[in-house]
Amino acid sequence: MGMELNGTPFMRKEQAVRQEGSTRQTVLTLLKTNGQMNAGELAKQLQITEMAVRRHLGTLERDGLIAPTIVRQAMGRPTHMFSLTEQAELLFPKNYHVLAMDLLEELEEDPETAMMIDRLFEGRKRKLMERYAHRMEGKSLEEKVTELAAIQNDGGYMVQVENGAEGLVLHEYNCPIAHVANRYQQACQCELALFRQLLGTEVERTECLAKGGGKCSYRIAGA
Questions:
Q1: Which residues contact 80 (CB under 8 A, 6 or more apart)?
Q2: pLDDT at 127 over 50
């Protein structure tokens, strides 16, 4: 009897949490496939009350996954239509790396275009340098390293800066372009060159994910 009293409310709560998460995922899927929908349309599709739908919509809007738009109708009151935000789009599968690899392999297979791969990576490094150089202006080396860590974190690299006996070391625990970097070392070479230019000092890569390491680590000279 004691186990039933203690366990049942917890199990009911856990089940309810799973159900709510599943319903919100279904809402996102419906908005993905239908574009904009209002609470009434979603309630009909989900076969739940409109009040329950609005509760889920409130949570999704608070989390930045959906955004409402007021749409005026020919007759009646304006209605709130909901659509996915750019942040929500990231929750759905993407195959950008497949496209990138296909394009690079196409260039690589043709002797006349193979040399363009180096130029593409060099061009990417140049654009990143132009994009971020102003964020380094007037900063000390330590401040530049902190800014670089923020830039890389925004790009999904999961960065941690370690200040130890050997000075500052920047660790990247994730590589968003791993599929490309594993085959094309130009990606890693350009990242290293970019770090050196942005920081204005010598940077040594001591570990590399693309070469079997557990992370990418960069030792920064003069820090």
A1: 38, 39, 68, 69, 70, 71
A2: yes
Rounded to whole angstroms, the Cα distance separating 152 from 195 reads 11
Tell me which long-range contacts 211-215 makes (C-beta under 8 A, separation of at least 24): 214/173, 215/171, 215/172, 215/173
Contact status, residue 171 vs residue 188, Cβ threshold 8 Å? no
Q: Is residue 204 over pLDDT 90?
A: yes
Report how far residue 2's alpha carbon sits from residue 30's, in angstroms, rounded to the nearest whole number: 43
In angstroms, rounded to a whole number, what is the distance separating the alpha carbons of residues 97 and 90? Answer: 14
- pLDDT reported for residue 49: 93
Please determine, for residue 35, whether its predicted confidence score (pLDDT) is greater than 90. no
What span, in angstroms and rounded, lies between the C-alpha atoms of 156 and 47? Answer: 38
User: Phi and psi at residue 155, in whole multiples of 5°?
Assistant: -90, 0
3-state secondary structure of 48: coil
pTM of the complete model beyond 0.70 = no
Contact criterion met (CB below 8 Å) for 182 and 188? no
- Nearest Cα neighbor of 128 from 222, 29, 206, 195 is 195
Largest Cα span, the chain: 79
Measure the CA–CA gap between 180 and 186, rounded to whole angstroms: 9
CA dihedral 178, 179, 181, 185 (to 10 degrees): 150
Token couple for 159 = 């960065």
pLDDT at 80: 92
Phi and psi at residue 175, in whole multiples of 5°? -125, 105
* pLDDT given at position 166: 76
